[in-house]
TrEMBL record:
The protein's name: Mannose-1-phosphate guanyltransferase
Gene3D superfamilies documented for this protein: Spore Coat Polysaccharide Biosynthesis Protein SpsA, Chain A
UniProt keyword Isomerase, yes or no: no
Segments forming domain Nucleotidyl transferase: 1-168
Classification via SUPFAM superfamilies: Nucleotide-diphospho-sugar transferases
Catalytic activity: alpha-D-mannose 1-phosphate + GTP + H(+) = GDP-alpha-D-mannose + diphosphate
Upper taxonomic lineage: Eukaryota, Fungi, Dikarya, Ascomycota, Pezizomycotina
Organism domain of life: Eukaryota
Keyword flag Transferase: yes
Length: 206
């Protein structure tokens, strides 16, 4: 996250974009990660001076929890100020961050979530999460993480806007489903030599 891009740590570009959202619509930023607190101490101190209108805090995970897991683990801290909406920005993303435009779309479409996407080549698309959306309404119809075949060249940029009323219950439901329904994927530990089993030997009689 502190790797420099264009003279600043990559995460600085996230903060700079947040600070540019008009009318102080974003007042708190939580950096969630598994790094030691000392890694971000100086960066947060300097950023607090550069972006005085934003409160910046680091929340350290007890283990790497993933995006949804980290959000849900720290939900009480995130919801303390009773926000109605929540931006989630992956710290390894560096782009124009059209956050104000995402807010406008969120309101215009009465959405529960907005995901930032970008078009790439068909060959590159399978390396990312792919979004299939309605061309007119922009509603997401389908999403596949790194599909084996092409389904769309619109990929997930790792920038999201959520309704807080929707995102945390959704994560809770997903966790409950996973706990209540054990995995149905099982392994078969074969003792056979699979290479010999499925490769036909040469016919010595020919």
């Amino acid at each position: 996250p502190l790797f420099e891009v264009a003279g600043h740590p990559i995460i600085w570009h996230c903060l700079s974009s947040v600070a540019r959202v008009p009318n102080k619509q974003i007042q708190e930023v939580y950096i969630i990660g598994y790094y030691d607190e000392s890694v971000f101490r100086d960066f947060i101190k300097d950023s607090a001076k550069e972006f005085p209108a934003i409160t910046i805090k680091y929340l350290r995970e007890y283990e790497a929890l993933g995006t949804a897991g980290g959000l849900y683990h720290f939900r009480d801290a995130i919801l303390k100020g009773r926000p109605e909406r929540l931006f989630v920005l992956n710290a390894d993303v560096c782009c124009s961050f059209p956050l104000d435009e995402m807010l406008k779309l969120f309101n215009d479409k009465d959405a529960e979530a907005v995901i930032l996407g970008t078009r790439v080549s068909d060959e590159a698309a399978t390396n990312f999460g792919c979004i299939v959306s309605d061309a007119h309404t922009r509603r997401v119809l389908h999403y596949v993480e790194k599909p084996e075949s092409r389904i769309s060249n619109l990929i997930n940029c790792g920038v999201y806007l959520f309704s807080t009323e929707a995102i945390f219950p959704s994560i809770r439901s997903a966790i409950k489903r996973r706990l209540d329904r054990p995995s149905r994927l099982v392994s078969y530990p074969s003792s056979d030599n699979l290479e010999n089993s499925f490769i036909l030997p040469d016919d010595d009689d020919d």
